[in-house]
Each structure stands twice: as C-alpha cells, then as structure tokens.
Amino acid sequence: MTGAGNWTWLLPGRVPTLIDAGTGDPRHLDAIEEALAGAALAQVLVTHAHVDHASGVMALAERFHGVRFFKMPWEERDARWPVAWEGLSDGQVVEAGDEALRAVHTPGHAPDHLCFWHEASRSLFSADLAVKGTTVYIPPHLRGDLADYLASLDRVRALKPARLFPGHGPVIEDPDAVLRGYIEHRREREEQILAALRGGGATPEALVPLIYRGLKEQLFQVARETVLAHLLKLEREGRAGRHEDAWHIIEP
Ligand SMILES: [Zn+2]
C-alpha cells in the first residue's frame, strides 16, 4: 500500500525536527544522521500511527539519544511503539527547524491524522491526506472515516496551500486541483454505490464487483473496506440502512 515507499521530512536548524518516523530502516537512519551533519535530532513529529509512519520510533530513539516524540494520541495504537510519546492537539504550534508549524487535525485516513502547516510559505506537510495520482485508503477497521476525510479535505482547501509535502509520492504543486479531484471522485463513487443499492439489498462483498470492474484479487479487501466506508457515511447521513450485513438505500 505504500507504493515506492514513504517520505519523512527533515527540518534542520535551531530545533532539528523529523516529520514522520519511517520504519527504522538502517539506511534511513544513516541518511538522517548524514543530513544532520553533527547536530542532534531534537524531535520527531509523527503524523499518524500507521506502521509506515510510526514504527521507526524505537530505532530513532536508539540512534539519536534524547530525541522526543510527538503525535496526537491514539492510545491503543501508540502503545505498539513504546517510546515516551508526548501529545499534540489541533492548532498547537510547534517550533521545528528555524520555523513554526501548526498542527492541523485531519482525521479520515486515520483518527489521529495530523498535517503540519507552515504559514509563511503556505506549505503543508500533508502525510496521507493526499497522494498524487491515486486515492487515499479509508479503512473502517482501523477507524478510518470517510465523512471525516471529506471534512478534512475541505479544511485543508480552506487554508489555500501553495504546496503539499506528502507521506507518499511526489510533492503536490497544485493542491486545490488534487483535493477537489478527491472530493469529486468520492461523490462519483457514492453515486455508483447508491445506484447499485437501488437494485436491492446488498452486502459490501456483493457491491465490490459492481463498483470495481476487473479488480485484482489481492485488492478485494481494500475495495471492500472502501465500499464499507461509503456505506457507513451514508448510514450516518440517514441515506442508507442495513439488516444484518445487507445494506439498502433510504430514499428521502
Ligand atoms: Zn497511513
């Protein structure tokens, strides 16, 4: 799911800061050490508790003594990585490098998802809010929430960012087009699901082949989770309901 891997962002300066922890790959640790050129890593800001963003914290703690770890708490998940986590909340301003970054809570992909906003350059370290060329996975089994995600996209659009530094894929130089594209894509997907439900009650498993034609077997679970994320959003809006595992449309 991480494609070609994932980015961490190092901000050198007065408060040397790493955004996201990676996975503890020794080559990554070496690269950070080299880029720090003798400076001590002060802190790591973890955008959310998914493995590819958080699991490197123990290796970082071992390599860079005294480093502090910050994230928005998600206790059940954070406990997997036993470092002395310090909490961040929405709107909190943190010194990073020679600059100040503001935490922006952007749940949806994960409940604890934070982006970091640099007002002066209108840049957002956007983690898994957007990945150029593909959509973002919203897994209900990991407390992903599509309604929250759409609200987060609106929230970030309202900041009018000039660029996004994502957790995966290239830097996004046209954020508004990309974010609007996501909103439109989800609206189309929702229309497809509503149309499929009009044909009668259906389970997420039965909906997947109607929505995703020619889907590869190994992507079935991801597609099922995505369909379920849409159904849960529609349920919350009073537009769909379920009897046991079969979902139906509720017409206004
Ligand atoms: Zn993630």
Please, could you describe this protein's structure?
This protein is an alpha/beta fold. Helix content is 35%, strand content 19%. The protein has 8 helices and 12 strands. The strands form 3 sheets. It has a 5-stranded mixed sheet with strand order 1-2-3-4-5, with no helix packed on it. It has a 5-stranded mixed sheet with strand order 6-7-8-9-10, with no helix packed on it. The chain has a two-stranded antiparallel sheet with strand order 11-12. A hairpin with a 4-residue loop joins strand 8 (114-118) and strand 9. Helix 5 (146-159) runs antiparallel to helix 6 and helix 7 crosses helix 8 (220-236). The longest helix has 24 residues, at 175-198. The model has no long low-confidence stretch (mean pLDDT 95). The site of zinc ion has 6 residues, from loops. Zinc ion binds at residues 48, 50, 53, 109-110, 128.
Q: Indicate the mean pLDDT.
A: 95
The total of beta strands comes to 12
Query: From N to C, what is the helix and strand string?
Result: EEHEHHEHEEEEEHEHHHEE
Main beta-sheet strand count, sense and barrel state: 5 strands, mixed
Distance between the termini: 37 Å
Overall 3D shape? elongated
Proportion of residues in helical segments: 25-40%
Spatial strand sequence of the major β-sheet: 1-2-3-4-5
Question: What proportion of the residues form beta strands (DSSP E)?
Answer: 15-25%
Number of H- or I-type helical stretches: 8
